[in-house]
Amino acid sequence: MATEAEAVTDADAMRRAIALAARGLGSTSPNPVVGCLILDAAGRPAGEGFHRRAGGPHAEIHALRAAGERARGGTAYVTLEPCDHTGRTGPCSQALIEAGVARVSYAVADPNPQATGGARTLRAAGIAVEQGLLAEEAEAGNIAWLTSVRRGRPHVLWKYAATLDGRIAAADSTSRWITSAEARADVHRLRAEADAVVVGSGTARTDDPHLAVRDVEGAVQPLRVVVDTEATAVRAGARILDGAAPTLIAVAEDADLTDSGHLPDVVRLPRGVRGLDIPALLAALHERGVRSVLLEGGPVLAGSFVAAGAVDKVVGYLAPVLLGAGPAALGDAGITTIAEALRLRMTETARIGPDLRITAIPEPATAAASAEAEPVPAGAPGPVPGTTTTKER
């Protein structure tokens, strides 16, 4: 980032706004993460801010307060279109107008019909407005909220840890610890950024997981969710029932809850082809304000989510270990032939201690079909992940 005495380019200014927005991950739900940088009339940094928590001032307000009179005649760079409605806070479009900014550049249009219209209001007030600068980067940073608005369900990130040959446990079911302490610490960062952490009955029985965030300063504890179809996996005294974070147990509509007095919060859901109906589960979580889900369940639950088309992102931690036997990371997902395979696009690879973290997102259906129609010739080299961090922009 340039010093205060130097002029800043448009791209650098928006990139700073995107970095600011990321500071709100895990604390703004059900609101979006938003960052804002204001340059004065000479193009020098005057004020910056990010949305810190739902109900609190928006990013533009923090930035305008920091900039003061230097905002007049300047430019505001915002990762999301300034809101145009009055909720728990006033419209940011009006605040920008009153501050006298001359230009507003925002990356992503607001898809929320209740809040959109800020760009139109700004233009009507004579302010130059531009959209789309670094839109892909800004969208990636705010993908959980955008998914929730566009699709009416939480964004789902499936995380798993496995050996290099894809095993999540040995043949005798022992699994602690496949990956390193560094990888496990990285998972706590993912938990801290999620609204809910979800596991299935198999994980609840085998691992007695705690699922709360540890060693992440200022983290808001996510909702801990166990998909326990028959209401038999979460026993009295389970670690997930302590007071470290809220807990929800999802059971079938016809499950016997006679001995469930120890369960703190239960939601009944219809059955699906495999256990509970996944769309119904996500709808129930969305109604509770959950905008992002970290799926940490075992292969059976992961398979149900993949079969339901409800995995938006995959983060796999691969340890340099071989087992040769034991359960695979993904169970039955309803895929019976290579033509039906869920194709992914790698967006990042990184070394985490001795392990490799791979991040990927599902390919659009058209891209997957094209890849299937044009197979790579036999013997042609494929991409090899490096040992340093790489990101697609």
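The record above closes out task 2.4. Task 2.5 opens with a second protein, given below.
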Amino acid sequence: MHRILAATLAASVCAPCAQAQTSLPMVSQEGLTLEQALTLAGSNAPGIGAADAGVRAAEAQRRVAGQRPNPSLNAEVENVIGTGGYSGVRGAETTVGLSLPLELGGKRSARIAVADSQAARARLAIGVARADLALSVTQAFNLAVASERRALVARDQLVTADEGLRVARVRVRAGRASPLEEQRADVTRINTRTALEQAERTVVLARGNLARLIGREPGALDVSWFDRVGGGMGPREAAAPGGTLALAIAEADVATTNAQVRLARSQRVPDLTLSAGARRLEATNDVAAVFGVSLPIPLFNNGRAGVDVARAQKDQAEALRRVALFDAQQAIATAETDLANAEANARTATGPALAAAQEAARIARIGYREGKFGQLDLLEAERTLAQTRAAAIDALAAHHDAQARLERLTARAPADTEVQP
């Protein structure tokens, strides 16, 4: 397993030289970039497919809303199977005609307005699905690269532990050190090997999660992206929640409820039904025209309750929009602070702190081989270097995660989703 994982890591990153580097290792070999991973994931995401199906359903509902009521074909036979002259069908009167409902009060345009707002809301769902996918892929890519970096650090620590054990054995055999030093070095090597195995398993897990998102094995990763810390040293302009997906969704819900209030009002207006036909009188074999008008009487249900329901839903949507605005402002402000802190930590951890720890470890190794420093001094220097390198990786990973979360919070709504509230 070690050989396979080592080959994978070597194909994606170059192992750093602990004695000479002054920053985290940079890799010139190209691999799968974050942009390519996002493109692959976009063509493999079921969430986007579901949102797209929702748009198609909303567009079909828009066509349904624009359709007018169907006419009815009516047929009646009167004065049959009676008594006297009306026995049998001798006095039958047969009427055949058409009835056409006429919608009044702007019901059709109100239905169309509701369907339009719902279609805009469905298109927003595609934007949300894409933004969520971009966040998931970026976080998975970030974890995969960070886990590979941690595995490389663990491998370097194992090499250093093996060398420390070799030097300790030489010193013990030469009578320059106690056998306890060899035992300490051996324990350090065992613990380091265990840490490497754990790091390699984490690499397999992180790469597997990324592979499931992009629909294929990621292969070598372009880890040069991991070392880039965006932004300048000065304060950045605060992002506004206006136009973001979260606020656009709340505004679309308000627009839908406004349209539903209009629809509820229009439904209070009774519809007319016009009918026209021809009547044949069996007794005389004559034909006459028949016309009719039907108008429902809003005696028991006048539609007022439906309007009240729609208005309450509108008030709820407007309140939720204010909540969404507050939550977006708070979340963006928190994410901006997290990103600024993560940038500062990343610059510090990958700069002076890492260089100082590397130099201290280099001096301790030389001094221990020459007998100028004790083993405890060496172990402390190596432990400090390992912690500093791990902190540098953690700081870079935290920076990219904070940046991805901020980009998700500030993702803009598509232009074709704007609706009038």
